[in-house]
């Protein structure tokens, strides 16, 4: 494989949930590979810090991914960056950490709106533009919970939904030259997992074949590969990046520590 096929030179990408954690690493890695990236998040301060550190290759844009009109603003802003808008990373996600009996309608709706509706809206608005550019790659960030389960029912439902939505999109958008894949991170060392106690974290890691937490860069390398021409025959796939959690390791023991 030629290293040039891994290059993202001349491409424009949109990354949601980009201010920190995995999203921030997606932005850094793709700009390192030559892309210009519109970094989308609600956290203006964190976005500004990110793009200031990266430089001109990254541009900050504040938007709520659950809002159609704001997605249209994202599209218009991305088209002003120059180059071909050919990469979308639907990374934005929230979790409520509530059980079925404690989940409120408002809490359920917000998780579904961001994680699932936001993913659909991104593809709805940007896929036609990507088609005009000759195609591209969409990477939907689901979760290991989209292959197994999570104690938060809304989060689990949303991430299984992203997995299924990706399959439908791969079929529909393939004739447009657009590949669509989902990735399924497990325990990644990001602020989203700061809630976990040392006991819970230890129990989870003890059951992994690779007994360490994943790092944001681990996921970012996978996303950059899927965005590149090197992954040109991969679409409709669900790729676990979870240290082996869904290979057969079970969460039964970890439940004692919740």
From TrEMBL:
UniProt keyword rRNA-binding, yes or no: no
One GO molecular-function entry: androstan-3-alpha,17-beta-diol dehydrogenase (NAD+) activity
Entry-linked Gene3D superfamilies: NAD(P)-binding Rossmann-like Domain
Enzyme superclass (EC): oxidoreductase
Pfam families named among the record's database cross-references: adh_short_C2
Swiss-Prot/TrEMBL keywords: Oxidoreductase
Enzyme Commission number: 1.1.1.53
InterPro entries, alphabetized: NAD(P)-bd_dom_sf, Sc_DH/Rdtase_CS, SDR_fam
PANTHER family hit by this protein: DEHYDROGENASES, SHORT CHAIN, ESTRADIOL 17-BETA-DEHYDROGENASE 8-RELATED
Membership in a protein family: Belongs to the short-chain dehydrogenases/reductases (SDR) family.
Protein known as: 3alpha(Or 20beta)-hydroxysteroid dehydrogenase
């Amino acid at each position: 494989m030629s290293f040039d096929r891994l290059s993202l030179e001349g491409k424009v990408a949109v990354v949601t949930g980009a201010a920190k954690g995995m999203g921030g690493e997606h932005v850094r890695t793709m700009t390192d590979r030559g892309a210009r990236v519109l970094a989308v998040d609600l956290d203006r301060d964190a976005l500004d810090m990110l793009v200031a550190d990266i430089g001109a290759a990254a541009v900050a844009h504040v938007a709520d991914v659950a809002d159609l009109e704001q997605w249209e603003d994202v599209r218009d802003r991305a088209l002003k960056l120059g180059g071909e808008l050919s990469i979308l990373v639907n990374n934005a996600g929230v979790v409520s950490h509530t059980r079925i009996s404690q989940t409120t309608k408002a809490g359920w709706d917000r998780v579904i709106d961001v994680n699932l509706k936001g993913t659909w809206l991104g593809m709805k608005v940007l896929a036609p533009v990507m088609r005009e550019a000759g195609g591209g790659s969409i990477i939907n960030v689901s979760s290991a919970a989209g292959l197994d389960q999570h104690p938060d029912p809304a989060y689990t439902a949303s991430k299984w939904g992203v997995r299924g939505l990706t399959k439908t999109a791969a079929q529909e958008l393939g004739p447009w030259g657009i590949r669509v894949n989902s990735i399924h991170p497990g325990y990644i060392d990001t602020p989203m997992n700061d809630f976990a106690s040392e006991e819970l974290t230890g129990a989870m890691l003890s059951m992994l074949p690779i007994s360490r937490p994943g790092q944001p860069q681990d996921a970012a390398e996978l996303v950059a590969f899927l965005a590149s021409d090197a992954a040109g025959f991969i679409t409709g796939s669900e790729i676990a990046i979870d240290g082996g959690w869904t290979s057969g390791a079970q969460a039964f023991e970890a439940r004692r520590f919740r």
